[in-house]
Structures are given as C-alpha cells and as structure tokens.
Amino acid sequence: MKKYDVQSCQILSKKQLTEDIYDVVVRTELARIAQPGQFAQIYVEGKTLRRPISICEIGEDTLRFVFQVRGDGTDRLSHSQVGESWNILAPLGHGFSLGDLSRKVCFVGGGIGVPPLLEAARRFGSQATVITGFRNKDAVILQEDFQKAGCRLILTTDDGSAGEHGLVTQFLPEDCQAIFACGPTPMLKALAAQAEKKGIPCQISLEERMACGVGACLGCACKLKTQENPAGWKYGHVCKDGPVFDSREVDFE
Ligand SMILES: Cc1cc2nc3c(=O)[nH]c(=O)nc-3n(C[C@H](O)[C@H](O)[C@H](O)COP(=O)(O)OP(=O)(O)OC[C@H]3O[C@@H](n4cnc5c(N)ncnc54)[C@H](O)[C@@H]3O)c2cc1C
Ligand code: FES
Q: Residue 33: its pLDDT value, please?
C-alpha cells in the first residue's frame, strides 16, 4: 500500500458526544498504515477543499474521528448517516514519535485538541497520565476511552463544574518523562516552556488552515526555528512536516 491513499469508507457508527461534537467510525484499509497523531482530509460534497480531521483511534480496519462543528463543512459531515461513505485521503502528516512505551509520559489536551491524543495514549496504557481541560462539564469528552486504556486521568474545567478547577498546565506530574500535547496555542507554548525547564521532550500537534494537505500548495505555513539562516527561522508546513512537531522547533513568536 502507498504512504497515503484515497478511499471511499463506509460509516459504521456515528454518535453525538456534546452539543456540537460528533464521533464517527469508518471501515477502511487505510487503518493498516495509519499512525497516532496523523490526520485525514475528508471530502465534503459541494466544497472544493477537503476538511482536515485528526485520527482519534485506529482499529484493525477502522478509523475513528471526533470533530466539532465549526462551519458549513463540518456541519455537513455531522449530518452523515451510518451506511453512507466518506471519501477520505489518509493517513497524512507526521504523527507522534512514541519512543520507549515503558516511560512515564503525560498527554495534555485542551478541548477539541483531546481526540488526536487518544490513540497514542492507548499505546502507553497505564504509563500515561492524561490531563484534559474543557470549558465546562458539558464540553467534556473521551474520559471513558482513556480510562478503558488504563491511563491515569486528570480532568480540569475552566469553571470547576467537573474535575479540578484550573488549567491543564498546573497539573503536570513530577515524574513525567515526556509530554505529548494538542490544544490552544497558549497552552502549547506554556507546556513547551515547562518541558524545557524540566529538561524533558515535548511533542505538540499544531493546527493551521489547510488546502491540499500533502505539502503541495504551501497553504499551511508555520514558523520553525532553524540555524540554517541568519534570521533564525524558516517556514515549515503543518500538513507535511507536522502536524506533530518537537516543541523546541516551533517559533511561538
Ligand atoms: C491537522 C488538523 C487536524 C484537525 N483535527 C481536527 C479534529 O480532530 N477535530 C476537529 O473538530 N477539528 C479538527 N481540525 C480543525 C478542522 O479541520 C476545522 O474545524 C474544519 O476544517 C472547519 O471546516 P468548516 O467547513 O466546518 O469551517 P469553515 O467554514 O472552513 O471555518 C469555520 C471556522 O473555523 C475556523 N477554522 C477552519 N479551519 C481551521 C483550522 N484548520 N484550524 C483552526 N480553525 C479553523 C475558521 O477560521 C472559521 O472561524 C483539524 C485541523 C487540522 C489542520
Ligand atoms: S495544505 Fe497544502 S502545503 Fe499544507
């Protein structure tokens, strides 16, 4: 099989997790070549550009996607029915480099940044502490899935209506040997700083508006630190060089 491919994938299940978040599982052979942290470009009828959605979970012949309705494209996807098919280009991008699965690691996710962490966290099982943050109790998702994988869970909400009252960045355990994160940029920036202070590696998954999704259109540029030129930075592409980057590479300024 190629590195990535296009397939028509039948929808096996669809659930509504919150007011605007949907959980869809499709049957596809693309699952065999997918890695945690990679994403798919999903065709939406009537739209020129596919919509990028992270792979949340990888089964033997299934892929799971958890997405929030943001605009017309994701709204249309949310109206798909079981038995219909999605045309999917996947798996795309550079996912998480998991390394030694016996290390004690932390997964940190904010809001809709939580789904891309599930498959990687599942592979670490009880070695993983998963710290997730949401606006309030009604926005909480995927806790049972991380629990089923044996992960230790720390739930936080901005208003204290579920779990701990506070920010995910306040709850990083002392014995954490590596961080994997996805969520809002200020959260990622704070985690990158904490990782640097602790001297531990930190991989972060970034989001940018995308067009082609395969490195051809230069539509998803992000700033990366480099010593290759005097300016000290260069453009990278979230779809091809990422979406997962070593936090030390990313120029947050
Ligand atoms: C690599 C990658 C992985 C992603 N994974 C997920 C996921 O697992 N679950 C999920 O819910 N969403 C994910 N997204 C975001 C998702 O692609 C966008 O929400 C979606 O494309 C919006 O399409 P739309 O037609 O519904 O909205 P549009 O009408 O295109 O836009 C509606 C609003 O969403 C904003 N928006 C659109 N695209 C993006 C983007 N890429 N990043 C941030 N804001 C955007 C627009 O600025 C606008 O405010 C991911 C994005 C990328 C790049
Ligand atoms: S979306 Fe085209 S280069 Fe990344």
A: 97
